[in-house]
Specification:
Immunoglobulin-like, 3 domains, cell membrane, CopC/D, CopC_dom, metal-binding, transmembrane
Length: about 525
């Protein structure tokens, strides 16, 4: 069997693109939710007796509004001017009085991690009508462009910037190594404008036909990814400069600065970088990326070093074997910390798209580790002694590791389209707040969490003129709005804070009717009726 050759990396990339492209399409049916919609006014599915004066949206983390579109019952639409009430709360005053029927609000925002988020909700005024047709949430060609450009940027960072530093890690600067680095880094620089374009198209929900639209490029640069793209460009340029025929010390400094700039670029955007506490997560992202870049980036220079004379080959193998262990320790420690921050609970590892992507990545990395361990403990010593079969096997193994590394990067790029479990958990834990009024009594009500399953319901009772209420007992009665099941009743207890609370198991998402029966001490009853919607 032949030794590893530079062309193998290109073939590995092509194979990886076809294998992982299907993953992008598989998760594209999920909502692009990285900041999650926590509440809306009106609520999704609400039936209003009169037209609202404004619409409002509250998210799980700070966002920037890109576009709010109101679709009328007749299918016509109008863009609403969004106004930020707080960092995570958007309001849109309505300049026209909404007519009778069902309206839809399509919203597009960019979350703190720099990723566009889109969604929609509907509500009816006076009476429901057929929900109007909504514009497509995303274009699959744009989706693939987002993923493909991101993969090329990652490859340039890991194998270009990491490879430039890896040359000094293994002690080789062969001309064929420089050619590979130049091609990789130039491909990364060309991919950056494509990545900005794809970001802008995705942010505005536009198609490729809008590629020359100035607003698209402004959106791409203004979502937070713009700063990251400029920092990536600086990183790639410094790495290119380090491969020129400069004094060794200057080249080493330039490659180190390129690595640092690449780490800063990754730490400035993305899921993990936006997670709290950012004082820890951002450095962890940078360390995780830089350790991966030094490890995987050194593989190509090392493969070329194995074809050098014995003295140079021994130096490269010895240096790589001696220095790789600390890098892997940093890689594993930072990765474990970031996973703990993003997941929170172990079941999220297999119950969410984000977790399933991580499992695929971990499986690939485990194979990488096993191959690397076998190389280190079984093949390195014979190769150092000049054993020809061991050298051939080690060379082929390095090519296989590079192919696996490319496949890992293709998998990591899929995370761009999957919500982190921490966001889903925050959305699920958010309580539903209600206010309802009866004949003589009104209540401030909280249902927590606001999703199907076990919930805790509490009600602070007061008279309609805000006086105290001292009932003998309180009963909560839950029934499906469709009336397809028996009501669920729960006797409330006063926990001592002036409210009445009870637990209940609500088995289905969607609309529910809640009736609060207040038993007075004189034997009479007052009733308060309201409705709410549970998330899945």
């Amino acid at each position: 069997m032949r030794d590893f050759r530079p062309g193998d990396a290109l073939r590995s990339l092509i194979l990886a693109v076809f294998l992982v492209g299907s993953m992008v399409l598989a998760v594209s049916s999920a909502a692009f939710a990285h900041a999650g919609l926590m509440s809306a006014e009106p609520e999704d599915g609400a039936l209003l007796q009169s037209a609202p004066g404004e619409l409002s949206l509250s998210f799980s983390e700070p966002v920037a509004a890109l576009r709010l579109t109101l679709v009328r019952p007749d299918g016509t639409s109008v863009d609403l001017p969004p106004r930020m009430k707080t960092g995570s709360h958007i309001r849109a005053p309505l300049e026209e009085r909404l007519g009778r029927g069902t309206h839809a609000l399509v919203w597009r925002v960019v979350s703190a991690d720099g990723h566009p988020v889109t969604g929609s909700l509907s509500f009816s005024v006076e009476a429901a009508s057929p929900t109007p047709d909504l514009p497509p949430a995303r274009d699959l060609l744009v989706l693939m462009l987002v993923w493909g450009a991101r993969v090329l940027v990652y490859i340039a960072l890991i194998f270009g910037v990491g490879g430039a530093a890896g040359c000094y890690l293994v002690g080789t600067t062969r001309p064929d190594s420089r050619r590979f680095l130049h091609l990789t880094l130039l491909a990364g620089l060309l991919a950056l404008p494509l990545a900005v374009l794809a970001q802008g198209l995705d942010a505005l929900g536009a198609t490729l036909s809008a590629a020359l639209n100035r607003a698209v490029w402004q959106a791409g640069l203004g979502t937070g990814f713009g700063v990251a793209a400029l920092t990536f460009a600086l990183s790639f340029a410094l790495a290119l400069a380090s491969t020129l025929r400069l004094p060794h010390r200057i080249s080493t400094i330039l490659s180190g600065l390129a690595l640092m700039a690449g780490g800063v670029a990754l730490a400035s955007t993305g899921h993990a970088a936006a997670a709290a506490p950012q004082v820890l997560t951002r450095p962890a992202v940078a360390l995780h990326a830089l350790s991966a870049a030094l490890w995987l980036g050194a593989l190509f220079p090392l493969a070329l070093a194995l074809r050098q004379p014995e003295a140079a080959r021994r130096i490269a193998l010895s240096r790589f074997s001696r220095r790789i262990a600390p890098l892997l320790a940093v890689l594993l420690t930072s990765g474990a910390f970031l996973a703990a921050v993003q997941f929170g609970t172990l079941p999220a590892l297999w119950q969410t798209d984000y977790g399933r992507v991580l499992l695929i990545k971990l499986a690939l990395v485990l194979i990488l580790f096993l191959v690397a361990a076998d190389n280190r403990w079984r093949l390195t010593q014979p190769a150092l002694k000049g054993d020809a079969p061991a050298l051939r096997t080690l060379s082929r193994r390095l090519g296989f590791e590079i192919a696996l590394g490319i496949l890992v990067l293709c998998t990591v790029a899929v995370w761009r389209f999957t919500p982190p479990p921490r966001v889903e958990q925050a959305m699920a834990a958010e309580p539903i707040a209600l206010h309802a009024t009866g004949g003589m009594i009104m209540a401030d009500i909280a249902v927590a969490p606001g999703r199907q399953g076990p919930v805790r319901v509490s009600a602070l009772l007061m008279t309609i003129d805000y006086g105290p209420v001292d009932p003998q007992g309180v009963t909560f009665r839950f029934s499906r709005a469709q009336g397809d099941a028996e009501p669920i009743e729960a006797e409330a207890m006063p926990p001592g804070d002036g409210s009445w609370s009870a637990s209940a198991a609500l088995p289905a998402s969607g609309p529910w009717d809640l009736q609060i029966i207040v038993h007075s001490r004189d034997g009479t009853c007052d009733r308060i009726d309201t409705e709410f919607r549970l998330k899945p």
